[in-house]
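Severity: low
Component: inverse-folding endpoint
Summary: output formatting inconsistent between runs
Steps to reproduce: submit the following structure tokens with default settings.
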């Protein structure tokens, strides 16, 4: 029960992050008292509601600074309720560098890495490298059973194995295995990254299972084939190279970027996945 409540709370926070959020407002949305809700949130998530909101605002603004280069840092910080000086102080406390320095790093560097095992070499990757493989598709709404995990993407194989074991009775030949990763482990502590792993099914779903609708519409589809270590690099390229230059308007207000697994060959470290990016 608590996991469902926390999922609902996290989704509510993400959808209203640019508003004046308070613990009281979120607790009321989840039909709990402020103090009881804050206690179970911290127990499940590992940080208080206030700390979670504050961190997400800084990390989402950092993503916008890097990828929405037509917007100024002042404009982005103001959308999250910060004055210029307060924002700079909070940003430096979180990233140990100013917003301008972080933006310059991602603008100037083709090799992106951190000390947590995430590495991307975009030296020979340009807009056409990605755009030539893009395909425009139209999707219907997709209902899925899903589990949410907070933790390092490197550990997702273990979560997938448990998920497939628990829900194998819902798998059939038409099932899609879907993953929604909400965070960039370069900008978010990898141990704080949020992921939903999902399966579609044609069978009746038990009422106590967590389900959601992945909204249909227009998507740009990019197919990746290769080793698992290159998946992170592919996402970095799509967001740091293709997204910045494309004329398509990405639509993330009501829809999500997700991947569909086509082939998973762990023994030979070969993966084929489709990456779906919602557009207007």
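Observed output (run 2 of 3):
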């Amino acid at each position: 029960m608590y996991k469902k409540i926390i999922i609902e709370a996290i989704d509510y926070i993400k959808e209203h992050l640019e508003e004046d959020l308070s613990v009281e407002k979120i607790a009321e949305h989840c039909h709990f008292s402020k103090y009881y809700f804050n206690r179970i949130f911290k127990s499940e998530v590992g940080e208080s509601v206030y700390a979670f909101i504050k961190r997400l605002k800084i990390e989402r603004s950092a993503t916008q600074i890097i990828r929405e280069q037509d917007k100024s840092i002042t404009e982005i910080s103001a959308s999250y309720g910060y004055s210029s000086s307060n924002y700079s102080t909070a940003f430096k406390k979180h990233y140990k560098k100013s917003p301008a320095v972080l933006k310059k790093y991602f603008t100037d560097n083709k090799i992106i890495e951190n000390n947590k095992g995430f590495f991307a070499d975009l030296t020979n990757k340009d807009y056409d490298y990605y755009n030539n493989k893009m395909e425009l598709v139209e999707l219907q709404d997709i209902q899925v059973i899903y589990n949410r995990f907070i933790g390092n993407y490197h550990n997702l194989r273990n979560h997938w194995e448990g998920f497939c074991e628990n829900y194998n009775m819902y798998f059939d030949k038409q099932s899609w295995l879907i993953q929604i990763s909400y965070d960039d482990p370069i900008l978010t502590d990898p141990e704080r990254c949020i992921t939903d792993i999902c399966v579609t099914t044609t069978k009746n779903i038990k009422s106590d299972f967590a389900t959601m609708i992945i909204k249909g519409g227009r998507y740009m589809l990019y197919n990746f084939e290769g080793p698992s270590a290159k998946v992170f690099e592919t996402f970095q390229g799509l967001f740091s190279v293709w997204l910045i230059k494309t004329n398509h308007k990405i639509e993330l207000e009501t829809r999500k970027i997700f991947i569909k697994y086509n082939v998973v060959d762990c023994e030979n470290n070969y993966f084929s996945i489709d990456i779906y990016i919602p557009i207007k």
